[in-house]
Automatic annotation (TrEMBL):
This protein's record includes keyword Metal-binding: yes
Protein name according to UniProt: NAD(P)-dependent alcohol dehydrogenase
Source organism per UniProt: Streptomyces hainanensis
Family note: Belongs to the zinc-containing alcohol dehydrogenase family.
PANTHER family, sorted: NAD-DEPENDENT ALCOHOL DEHYDROGENASE (PTHR43350), S-NITROSOMYCOTHIOL REDUCTASE MSCR (PTHR43350:SF21)
Length: 364
């Protein structure tokens, strides 16, 4: 079928809306009419690596929409279902069977190869393959082909698809790092570095978990103001003096639970330094490959540093939990999103880069 997709062709070039041919669903595939798609940093990081040899690429991995058609082997998802699309996993490898699909052995092939697992393309232009299947969706398009392993049915008829679309990646990443990995107790002193969509969804999750203090470190003033409005117990501008001392003071001796969303080695090193003894820092930011840490501080104070992808979440279990929290008013992610028409996708990118929008969501 002919669909419209936001196509990327080169690093630094804008998205262009173009007509693309999308395959009909195979037996194990689900055709979704996309209503909304969040813009995640990973889309832009991948776009920045596109060279002419890749040919046209369709990104987008926080899609939400309505199922139009399902293949004959699909069960549990029906035409008309409202769905959120998340990341793919094989459901067969040791890590998937151990309940850790974010670390699936087939993850790169299923999410980042631009093809189906068997190497076939899902999209074409003038007969030539287009790189699609990004996170098993490529949802910067009017329609996407997904699979049962990355489709989550939205049971709540009142849920606004534009608001909940980023649960598929960014909000799941922040909230999951807190609720699935850090698991703060009511005495917890929580700090998050970076107040983008991931950092602020982590803040909301820490508040929902009842953490005693919730500190947000963020250089952009409008984002600090938003964190303050969302109920952070303290907001810190890291450009304003000694950030380690400021975080320690705001948490009464250092965070017991902390999250870095920046991926900036100097920020991560400071976040480890600021931790309370026996505290844990989870890192979810994709940044420089190397990091220098104070080994003595880490060892003598029993501190832990741990990486995490997609909030360690099993989407079909965790996203419904977040939807319930959202419906109960305890996970108010509507405060984080700014909606744009898909025709304004390049403006959405510019606004996110400039700090004017925390989480842009594109709608058809
Ligand atoms: Zn697997
Ligand atoms: Zn993402």
């Amino acid at each position: 079928m002919r669909i419209t997709a936001a196509v990327s062709r080169a690093a630094g070039a804008g998205f262009t809306l173009e007509t693309v041919e999308l395959d009909p669903p195979r037996a194990d595939e689900i055709l979704v009419r996309i209503a909304a798609g969040g813009l995640c940093h990973t889309d832009l990081a991948i776009r920045s690596a596109i060279t002419p040899e890749h040919g046209p690429v369709v990104l987008g991995h926080e899609g939400a929409g309505v199922v139009e058609e399902v293949g004959g082997a699909v069960s549990g998802v029906r035409p008309g279902d409202r769905v959120i699309l998340s990341y793919r996993s094989c459901r067969r490898c040791g890590r998937c069977l151990a309940g850790r699909p974010a670390y699936c052995e087939q993850s790169m092939r299923l999410n980042n190869s631009g093809r189906r697992a068997d190497g076939s393309a899902t999209m074409r232009q003038a007969g030539a393959p287009v790189a699609g299947s990004f996170f098993g969706q490529s949802s910067f398009a009017t329609h996407a082909l997904a699979s049962t392993d990355n489709v989550v049915v939205v049971a709540d008829e009142g849920a606004d698809l534009a608001t909940v679309a980023p649960l598929g990646c960014g909000f799941q990443t922040g909230a999951g790092a807190v609720l699935n990995v850090l698991r703060p107790d009511p005495d917890a002193r929580f700090a998050v570095y970076g107040a983008g969509g991931v950092g602020l969804s982590a803040l909301l999750a820490a508040k929902a978990a009842g953490a005693a203090s919730t500190v947000v470190v963020e250089p952009v003033a409008v984002r600090r103001e938003l964190a303050d409005r969302l109920g952070a117990t303290a907001v810190i501008d890291p450009t304003d003096g000694d950030v380690v001392a400021a975080v320690r003071e705001a948490t009464g001796g250092g965070p017991s639970h902390a999250l870095d969303t920046t991926g900036v080695p100097a920020v991560v090193a400071d976040a480890v330094r600021a931790l309370a003894p026996t505290g844990t820092l989870v890192v979810v930011g994709l940044g420089a490959a190397e990091l220098t840490l104070d080994l003595q501080d880490l060892m003598l104070n029993g501190k832990a540093v741990r990486g995490c992808i997609e909030g360690d979440a099993v989407p079909q279990r965790f996203i419904p939990e977040l939807l319930d929290l959202h419906a109960a008013g305890r996970f108010p992610v509507q405060e984080l999103i700014t909606t744009y028409s898909f025709t304004d996708i390049n403006r959405a990118v510019a606004d996110q880069r400039a700090g004017r929008a925390v989480k842009p969501v594109l709608v058809w």
